[in-house]
Amino acid sequence: MTRKEQLSQAELLIKLKTEIRNEQSGIKLVPLTQGFLMTNYESLISQWEKFFSDKEVTKHLHPLTPFKKLGDGSEVKILVEEFLATKSSSSDSILFIIYHPDSTLPIGHLSLNGINSQSGSASRGIVIGEADFRYKGIGKIVGQMSIEHARKSGLKILKASAHSGNSASIANLTRQFGTGSLSTDQKEINFTLDLTS
Question: Which CATH superfamily, name and number, covers 9-194?
Answer without folding.
Answer: Gcn5-related N-acetyltransferase (GNAT) (3.40.630.30)
